[in-house]
Amino acid sequence: MKALHGTGIAAVALAALAAACGGGDPDYTAELRRTQYGLVHVKADDYRGLGYGYGYAVAQDQLCLLSDRVRTLRGERSGRLGPDGPALVGFLPLSNLASDLFYRVQLSDEEVETAWAQLSADAQGLAEGYARGFSRYVREMKASDRDTACGGVEPLTMKASDVVRATMQIGSLWKAFLVAPYGTASRWEDLASAATVQSANVVPAGAGASNAWAFGAEATGTGSAVVVANPHAYWQDHWLLMHQVHLRIPGKIDVMGADFIGLPLPLAGFTRDVAWSIEAPSTVTYPLLVAVELQAGAQPAVVVDGVARPLERKRVKVAVRQADGSVQDQVFELPRSHLGPLYRLPAQGSRPAGWYAVTDPNQANARGLDQMLAAAKARNVAEFESAVADHRGITAHLIAGDRHGGALYIESGPLLDASDDALRACGIDPAAAGIPVALDGRRAECALRDAQGRPRLAPPDRIPALSTRGVVQNANDNYTHAVFGQRFDGYSSLLGSPLAPPNPRTRMSQRQIEGYLAHGGVIDTEKAQDMVFANRNYMAETLLDDLLAVCRSAPPAAGVDGSCNLLAGWDRRNDTTSRGALFFNELWRRIGTLPALYAEAYDPAQPFRVRTLSTDPAVADQIVTALQETAAALQALGLRGDEPWGRVLARGTADGKVGLHGGAGGQGVLNVIETGPLGPDGYQGIVSGTSYMHVVTWEGGRLVARMLVANGQSADPASAHRDDQLGLFAAEALFTPPFSEAEIAADPALRTQRLSE
What we know:
The chain is an alpha+beta fold and 757 residues long. The chain has 21 helices and 33 strands. Strands 23-21-20-10-9-8-7-2-1-33 form a 10-stranded mixed beta sheet. Strands 5, 6, 24, 27, 30, 31 and 32 form a 7-stranded antiparallel beta sheet that branches. The radius of gyration is 27 Å and the shape is globular.
């Protein structure tokens, strides 16, 4: 394997220069084609060319967004944008300086080099090509365009290491939640401080969700699976935007789907044999904090098994823009132990204030590139399972189905290897139930590291890989109910508790599938698509009758009769034309978290039992008060609450507002749409929700696919592809993408570029 920053990259650059001057064959060659809706098709003879064509295409669509992402992951925001400006570390809104310091430490050159060395030559070539193609587009821009294209911030060129960082950062998200806000308060000089750091109280930006289903042959009755991908990603300028792509090397790889910005492969995709989708693994605990015992003195140390282990003083330089416009290096001297960087954390819940390391199974992990390459070559779900288990790169739930009728749920990320008993014994409070708030770093065995100091990883047989010819479902819950009609238990508590109640979207999924399969029914592509576009509201279906009974029993003086009538006339869906969804949405914000809302406690033995509304008079009084407050709040905005849902849920475009459908995941609406606050003209902007979607099956062994990126291929308001798929989404429709060479050639919107250097 070539070194990431060494002679291998230099040799490639010299060869490319020679080719440009007429000497030798080009090192990067690709055919870039676009069809309707700006769908990208890249064809090449090798992985370097494949990445090259795709990197160029992404630059055409998401230049500024990806350039900003590169700057963030390199830790270079403060030098260009100032230390106090806003940054996003995963989902945490922090300052540029806090962001730079976190990524300089956690995605350091050393960590990136380690990750690079573990990649195959194919994955390395793909990363090199992607960076090269993006950079070519930037270099081709006129200087005046570069100065103005991104709000006066000149776009960066890319390196292969930037692709590695973009892959690694998916695994670093969970670490960011733990320690990112506290890097600037965790310096060497702070080791001797008796003061404790204050809690940052950072609220994550936005709320994510996703759904995915694989309906196997027993559910479809066709001999093939039907796979629905429904990731809920961001609609605005965010690294978690999705981009459609079709990548092909004849005889080697032929895959279509969508990725997140900065990654060169689909994370939700399909081939002629297999289709799959990705979901955020919100039930999984990846990194664990390790509480360390400090020993002060001229040479600070941590004490492990009674032995003092000296700390290393790590110098990290961050370029910082000054008030006068100059740029100066700010040097941070940070403590580093045998367990890696140390962070000074505040008290939180049962966790005491103190110094902590992190044991992270995703340390120096960019294997997601090889994982998704192998997945894209799988011929069935068994090979897909092996592709995931052999690499353990992308941290996610994955659901897959194949043309042979198989369906699969699998955890795709690496997991720390520790039994539940060991976790409890190693917790800083061994008497506490559940996953410990931190491990006891005073005992070497409790750091969960091997003899080389690397995190101990669980073998594949301790991580769920659940296959069936029935139905696989997931809505960000854990593995327990992932196979319809079955219940699983016995895996590590780090994967989530089997006793935890299913979330409302999982309940809605279960309810819809039960209805479709009742009385010997089957699930075809129309019903599969309807899992999302039915826009059914679980809370309305199961609680609205009880709420109406409370409403109608209220005394006349309460003045809620109008609200009762409004809710009674609602179709209990979040369709564009639904009247009453607005009132219920605002009402649920007030009653959804009432502690005594239900008459029955959740029973793990009956996980999908419908619970009824409490008959406690105090709860009824709270509901009546919420009805009054909801009506008053809407009236203050000039709204009634029975406006068509698409009137208040809309996206502004150059041609005017487009009314939409979907709703809150907390209400059990599978088609999640998260918005800004409510104003007189409706909800202020679409933040996140249903973004990419595909429905894939096989008829007579032939691929049949439909897809959509609801918010379009580009975040650029000037792009023709910013909103050109929005009308499809509003109409609850998908489009059929051209996949074969003949279909691509016949597309009336076909445009072709041939790239080489």
